[in-house]
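>> received
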Amino acid sequence: MAKGSAPDYVVSYVKEDRGQKRWIRVGAAWKHQSGDGVSLVIDAVPVNFSGELVLRPPYAEDQQEAA
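>> returned
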């Protein structure tokens, strides 16, 4: 992970709440230069975790936040 570089993935916690899926950003991930894995940084851990973590490419607004 290059310091200050935009993440390759945004990590979101997905939880079902009253029949609706809520996506909450909890971290980021960067591809290894060798291409053999990713480094994952979690900024928040959900209390009573009972959902899933999803890694997706960042949207344009996520890229702007990182700048």
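>> Helices lie at 60-66.
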